[in-house]
Amino acid sequence: MLSQHRRRFLQSGLAAAALAAPLIGKATAPRAVTPRPIAPPPAAAIRRVALHNLHTDESLDAVYWENGAYVPDALNHVNHVLRDYRTGDVHPIDRRLLDLLDTLSAKVETRKPFHIISGYRSPKTNAMLHETTPGVANNSLHMQGMAIDIRMEDVDLSHLHNAALSLKVGGVGYYPSSDFVHVDVGPVRHWG
């Protein structure tokens, strides 16, 4: 027969295990990686993006968020400027990517346009680049409108790279020999 002291000890141990079980499950269970939203400080009344597509020579300087909401016409213009210039395919650009660019622009303290090397890529273009260009991912986030390759005319590339890294959001790739920085709103990681 169990002593009263031992019985209480076992009961408290079972109760603690029952309480800890959900926590243990959460700590060890794999979790989906959901990129956290990128947003300027809450005081920002507007968010804007300035882009210059080096392949099409198109430029855009637009307020894409104001009065607490995204501006549909501005988003459509962004989608067009960042289209796959090889095929003409247009794809919705992830709004978090625009928020990342707005935050990055503030971080490097300029409102000059981002020079776009690559925005959206169609599956056809990405497959071709994957075959011919080292480092192009087979399942690139460019195909989901979640990645962009950029530089800025008045910002040193290493400064742009360090500013992107300091945000601790998404992926950051550094390509100094090709003169661009890759940023995306996927899982946090970096290379280059």
- Radius of gyration, rounded? 23 Å
Percent range of helical residues: 25-40%
Number of strands: 8
SSE order = HEEEHHEHEHEEE
Count of discrete alpha- or pi-helical segments spanning 4 or more residues: 5
CATH architecture: 2-Layer Sandwich
Q: For the largest beta sheet, what order do the strands appear in spatially?
A: 3-2-1-4-5-7-6-8
Which range does the strand content fall in?
15-25%
Number of domains: 1
Quote the distance from N terminus to C terminus: 67 Å
Shape: globular
CATH topology: Muramoyl-pentapeptide Carboxypeptidase, domain 2
Describe the biggest sheet?
8 strands, mixed
Average residue pLDDT: 85
Structural class: alpha+beta
Could you characterize the architecture of this molecule?
- The protein has a single domain, classed as Muramoyl-pentapeptide Carboxypeptidase, domain 2, CATH 3.30.1380.10.
- The protein contains 5 helices and 8 strands, in the order H-E-E-E-H-H-E-H-E-H-E-E-E.
- The protein has helices at residues 4-28, 72-81, 95-107, 123-132, 157-167; strands at residues 46-53, 59-66, 69-70, 114-118, 147-151, 171-175, 180-184, 189-191.
- It has an 8-stranded mixed beta sheet with strand order 3-2-1-4-5-7-6-8.
- The longest helix has 25 residues, at 4-28.
- The protein starts with a helix and ends with a strand.
- Residues 5-34 have low confidence and may be disordered.
